[in-house]
Each structure stands twice: as structure tokens, then as C-alpha cells.
What we know:
globular; 107 residues; 2 helices; alpha+beta; four-stranded antiparallel beta sheet; homotrimer
Amino acid sequence: MSHDGLSKMTKIEVVTSGADSHAVRELFRTAGATGFTSLSGVSGLGHHGYHQGRLLFNDQATLELLITVVGDEKVEPLLAGLRPLLAESSGVMFVSDTYVSRPEYFR
Amino acid sequence: MSHDGLSKMTKIEVVTSGADSHAVRELFRTAGATGFTSLSGVSGLGHHGYHQGRLLFNDQATLELLITVVGDEKVEPLLAGLRPLLAESSGVMFVSDTYVSRPEYFR
Amino acid sequence: MSHDGLSKMTKIEVVTSGADSHAVRELFRTAGATGFTSLSGVSGLGHHGYHQGRLLFNDQATLELLITVVGDEKVEPLLAGLRPLLAESSGVMFVSDTYVSRPEYFR
């Protein structure tokens, strides 16, 4: 995809427990993200706890979805910080391409 | 996009009525998805009902957004199951590339 | 990515204040989008207000996430309408590739 006037950035979505959400937001900030979007009303199963054997299939955890968008140069530092945090907390992270119209908002 | 240490997966997002959400989750499970994320507080218009002529433009339905991430080999079976279910229920599905750091969580 | 039976479309996500949400939905409609999905329970920081110097880091705004999916020919008109609206309102927009199984729903 190529859209005139749009700049390619990286969107990082993290699904995490409410308890770990503050740590994820702090990590966004220290890695240089200029902001984030947070969604509540999130529940989940499997990706987020199944591997710890604590949840049955209808036993959903209360979670938060945190989204940030950063330029290329901030992706690796951000992922480097998120990996150990998510490994401990059984959160998951999705990394995708996205395009924005005002890249200076995210730098 | 190519990020060191990340694996390409497929993210499947389904917007469906609360009534059909259980069937979609069951389909995720039988197609081998290892988990899902569910968002409440979702409403929508058009894509989800307009075509049945039941909704005016400000008449929003209460919906749920279900997200799962799977490896390549599970995409086709999952889509094959979702298509007839969504055709019946006027739900919609979005399929996107995404990258994860721990692909074993999604296999 | 290439999936048999899926059509490439463009997903436009807008994070905006509740006050501006109606204007964004109207813009979707006049640009020819056939529908949208709206998520409540959204808060955010930085991308959405930081640049106006009104928010401290833990001072989150109440926002709405609006998602629409359109065919290629509607992307530019939609973005042309959203840019000035978001510039005024400090909202943000993310544009991504996505694939759908029933493209006629989005045209």
C-alpha cells in the first residue's frame, strides 16, 4: 500500500492484565513513544493465560489493550523492553505496519 | 516490514453480535486458535446490518469485537468456518498481517 | 500476504474525543463508507492531547475509537476530509491494509 501524504509507522498493541498496564505505559514512555491509546472492556483467553494452565476455556481474564504508534527507530528499544515484561506477565503483543498523516505526532 | 526476532502471523478480527459471539469463539477453538481477545463496548452500523435494511444511520447495534492470531496453516480452516457463520449473522471479519515475538503462543 | 477468496481493502481507525465522534461518523458516511465500528471505553494520552500541552502524563482523555473499511477509490476522499477535522480536534488516525471476504459489503 502506498498513500500520498501518509508516513509508514509501526503500531504496537499489547494485551495485558490491568495490574501490569501501568508498567507497560511506563515502558512506552521511556522508549520514547509520544502517547498511547488504552481500551478497557477487554477480556481474553488462551494467548494470555492458557499457557500457565490457570484458565479453563470459558474462564476469561480482565485485560487492557494498549496501543502505541512509533517511528522505526523506536521499535527495537520498545520491543526489547516489552519482551521480558510480557514473558513475566503472560501478556501478548502484536506488531503491525500502519500509516499516519502527521508523523511528527509520533516522534 | 521486517523486525528481528518477530514472526509473521495472521490476525483475524470479527465484529459480531453478542448473540453470535459464543459461536465465533467456539469456531476459533475448533480451528486450533490457542486463544482470543474480546472487546465489549462495541457498536456499529452499516457493515453489520445496513445490508439487511433493518438499521437507520443512527441506529447502532450492540456488538463484540473478537480478535485471534494464528499461524499460516490455520488461516484457511478458520476462514472456511467463519464465512458461513458471518453470512448468516451479518457480522464482518478483517484479516491482517501482524508480527509476534513468541509464535509458540499462537500455535 | 495473499489469501484465496479475500479482497484487499483499507482500514481507517480514528481515535477522537466523544465530542468530535459525530463529525467523524458523518464524514465516513459522506465519503461513501458503508458502515463503521465504534469502540467506547477508550482513553489515551499524548498522541491525542499532549501536543496541546493540556495533559499531564497520567491525565487521560475520554475518547472513542472509530473503525471503517473502504475500497481503494474511497481512501483519498476520506483522508482529505479527516485531515482538517483531526488537525482541529487533536484526534489521530491510523491507516492499514486489511483483507475481507465480502468486499461488496464495503463498497
